[in-house]
Amino acid sequence: MNGNEAHGTMAEAGLVPQRRLLERLIVGNTDLERLESMLRRFNLFVAMDAVHHEVRHSNFLAYLLDPRKNHGLGSLFLKRFLQAALASRREPGIAPVDIELWRSEGTEVLREWKNIDIMLRDQANRIAVIIENKIDSKEHSNQLQRYFDVSEHEFQGWTIVPIYLTPGGEPPSDSRYVAMSYAKVCAVLEQLAAPAMYPMNDEVRLGLRHYAEMLRRYVVAESEISELCRRIYEQHREALDLIYEHRPDRQAAVSQLLEALITEHPDLELDTCGKSLVRFWVKKLDVTALRQSANWTPSRRILLFEFDNRQQELKLFLYIGPGPVELRRKLYDIARDKKPLKPLDAFRHKWNAIFSRHFMRSESYEKSWEEFEEILKTHWNQFLTADLPAIIAILEAERWIFQEEPTLQEAPIDAV
Question: What is the pLDDT of residue 407?
């Protein structure tokens, strides 16, 4: 056996334990199968990207709490919600049994009243309910006290019921508030959505069930998904660490895709590139007047398109780079008056972005690579067919750019 064969045999032997780790993770792993099944199951609120958006949770809860909305529940959810919130309250005040007898059909439900997430206002019973809702954020700026004080001032002589709603029922900073967990919201929803428990429209029942399932999966403190993930990781830590080590680098893949798109276009040329920045220029604009930047890239081009490629965002800019101040000022002034060009800031002596286009936002990075690539290419084609021709036409109309004239005297370049 020669040296290469021996080295190859040792390398293959080193791969065997890793392969076995992955096999134990994948083959016959009922927890993993359960997790994949849950993630594959369609859920309306997951599809709407509502999981981590407090505003969307508040909007839906406010809708269900409003007896006048068209969900057909009347004040049923309102009563069950308040009873669940107040069940463990020890202080004197409204008891759960009082809520059952409460004629609440006239309750007003307000969103963002005085910055309060949800305000319930019942004029007939002189009751005001504050609901401060937190999903991923924490309370701040003494807001609980401020909300209670403004409500107490507005509704003098009324009964104020303040509720602090969080995934795990975290204790509020203001002891006057009742801590309520999303697990209690789930329990109310599941009780209402149970077959034959309450007469209601099938579509409403389905909506309640989907919302409760989403909360159980992702929001409540000890969600089913979080428990499954912890158990899988504890049992297969080495395999999962190995997978993480070899995970795809989305940022690098985006950079490579951008370079390929630019290279295959006959009118464009790559400039300096890296993982986070991809620069290119337009061959029609490759003229002497625009090759006067000694302090930027080796190409000396003063006008360059630049992709700002971040981990969760992709934007395209057209920059005026460092160069003669007179030339930079003339290009800047052109951009002030001609769309789609638009300077993003005041005139500076080094760099000025005079065009920007958002290609990809954070939500696109949650999609599969195939979907992500399709969206990026759609934006690229829109840029090529709309923005780029307009920008070229604007610059071509400036005949002085294309005249062979002496290079403008280089002025000192000072950062602003």
Answer: 47
Q: Mean pLDDT over all residues of the chain? A: 85
Q: Exposed, middle or buried, 101 (CB in 10 Å: 0-12/13-18/19+)? A: exposed
Pairwise CA distance, residues 108 & 119, whole Å: 8
How large is the angle between the packed helices 224-235 and 30-40, nearest 10 degrees? Answer: 150
pTM of the model: 0.53
| Largest distance between two CA atoms of the chain | 94
**Alpha carbon distance 313, 322 (integer Å):** 26
Spatial CB neighbours of 45, under 8 Å, sequence gap ≥ 6:
51, 56, 60, 210, 211, 214
How far apart CA 131 and CA 165 sit, in angstroms, is 7
Residues linked to residue 113 through DSSP beta bridges, in sequence order: 116
Q: Cα(173)–Cα(413) distance, rounded to whole angstroms?
A: 53
DSSP 265: S
Instruction: Measure the CA–CA gap between 66 and 70, rounded to whole angstroms.
Output: 9
**What separation in angstroms does the CA of 53 have from each of 135, 199, 354?**
7, 30, 33
The set of residues, in sequence order, having a beta carbon less than 8 Å from that of 414 and lying 6+ positions away, is 349
Q: What is the pLDDT of residues 241-296, one digit of tens each?
A: 766 666 668 898 999 999 999 999 999 999 989 889 999 999 999 899 898 887 78
| CA 37 to mean position of chain CA atoms | 24
Looking at residue 251, its amino acid is: Q
What SS3 class is residue 290? helix
Between helix 224-235 and helix 237-245 the angle, nearest 10°, is 90
Hey, which bits of 255-309 come out as E strands?
Answer: 268-273, 277-282, 303-309
Residue ranges of alpha helices (H) inside 27-67 are: 30-40, 44-47, 54-65
Structure tokens belonging to residue 58: 């508040």
Please tell me the total number of residues recorded for the chain in this structure.
416
Instruction: Confirm if 42 and 217 have CB atoms less than 8 A apart.
Output: no
Task: Provide Rg for the chain, Cα atoms.
Answer: 30
Ranges of H-type helices in 111-201: 143-154, 182-193
Residue type, 116: I
Nearest Cα residue to 291 out of 185, 407, 169: 407
